[in-house]
Amino acid sequence: MKIGFCLAAFIVGCFVTVSFKANAPRSATASGSTIETTVESVNIASQPEPTKALEMEIVTRAFGKTKNGDEVTQFICRNSNGYVLEMIDYGATVTAFRAPDKNGKLENVTLSCSDMAGYEACSSYFGSSVGRYCNRIAKGKFSIDGTEYTLAANNGANHLHGGKVGFDKRMWTGEKITYDNADLVGVRFTLVSEDGDEGYPGKLEVAVEYTLNNANELKIEFTATTDKPTHVNLTNHNYWNLCGAGSGEVKNHVLQLECDQYTPVDAESIPTGKLASVEGTPFDFRTATPIGARLGEIKAEPVGYDHNYVLRSTDEMKLAATVHCPESGRKMEIHTSQPGIQFYTGNYLDGQPGSGGFEQYGAFCLETQHFPDSPNQSAFGSTLLKPGEKYRETTVHKFSIQ
Prior knowledge:
10-stranded antiparallel beta sheet
């Protein structure tokens, strides 16, 4: 296949670096070692139909600079069905996921910013890899072996999504990956979080691997090791709108959660420590239900869902959620190794730069995770990682048309 035809599916007027094909031997490859080809003024209007057979590929391009002058690289993966996954090494962030609708129209279905200035102005964690500890830790404190640690407080008196400079605001190292005899492509991002980072003990070495395959599955796998006992809870923070990013509210999306319980929270969104039944409450999504059907019944300010659900299955990998957009026909299933999933309806989006210009309820998040504030809630299970152990959690998003 000619290079110009391959790139026309998603690159507009830029210089690109063409990488490998999916059947190459598995390796992590620095971008400087690839064969470079430049293409100018590619017209996105000539984009091939996603139903046509395409070759899997990855290209890279410059995505601007941070305020500190760091060069940011975007990695763009496409499978043979035309699905496109775009990521940057700032925050190991998903900047777009392009999927066809029931008519074959390709659209981005996750909220994003158009440039680095937008991402640095945005405080909503669009598509980011979040850590060291996603969600909240009460009062920004926990104890390990009798020693109390104080974390950065960035959500009132509490600690949220890793602190003031969490993993979402860090430059990661990105490497393209190929796999032996497999129809998938991917990128591996790595980061070192030094001892004392945002108040956490231990030097933490983290990796997240994003892959896209020909079954239209986006797989996200986090791994981490430490040299001191520390708490770890990593997730991806994509905001989904299966009708297309910016198309309006997601209240019409139909959601089913494989959860009989959730963790109630106080006025600061800190878990009370209880596991409550969803039965007879607006939190019940055990059968497929429109997101907006009972959203107004949630007693919160602002109104909406922002709650951790307890997955009923304890299998290593299990179905956690299914979402369908009737208008576009797009359907997404989420399978995970994690014990919980945070359902958030974009309650704090307000159309301002901190929200990337998107309005309230313009997307939803389904963040697979260990439970919020687990370091201070003994009934929630441990998130403690010790030297010699390896943290590993996997989540798969499978896309189809219904």
